[in-house]
From TrEMBL:
Residues 22-56 form a coiled coil. The chain crosses the membrane at residues 87-104. This is Uncharacterized protein. Residues 1-20 form the signal peptide. Keywords: Coiled coil, Membrane, Signal, Transmembrane, Transmembrane helix. It comes from the Bacteria.
């Protein structure tokens, strides 16, 4: 009976350290899961930002190309039809400038803020 009682006391002393170790491991796992979720969210935001800026860059290139093409056509028409040529020069130039502004806004979207360096562990 005495041995049985000593065995129960001995096992009772072993249980709390292993229990506290599992709690520590569980908190480490929870911390790791939170960090992974935060990284997933950050990657999603970066991908979304790149997709939006890609679409804006495409629009800007298209608008600027149309505008400068119209400007070139207006310059060609200056000799044969000066009134239409001047109009096309102004309209094409303004359209090209708008396209360039859209392009610049697209480039600005790519880097909205300075990246934060990771913490030292």
């Amino acid at each position: 009976m005495k041995r049985f009682l000593l065995l129960i006391i001995f096992l009772g002393l072993l249980v709390p350290p292993s229990f506290s170790q599992t709690q520590s491991q569980q908190s480490n796992l929870d911390s790791l899961r939170r960090e992974i979720r935060a990284l997933d969210q950050e990657i999603y935001e970066v991908q979304l930002n790149l997709d939006q800026s890609k679409n804006q860059l495409k629009k800007g290139i298209f608008i600027a190309t149309i505008g400068y093409t119209v400007t070139i056509i207006g310059g060609q028409l200056l000799g044969s039809n000066p009134d239409v040529g001047k109009t096309l020069l102004y309209v094409g130039g303004a359209t090209g400038i708008v396209g360039t502004v859209v392009l610049v806004k697209g480039f600005n979207k790519i880097s909205l803020k300075k990246p934060v360096p990771p913490p030292n562990y």
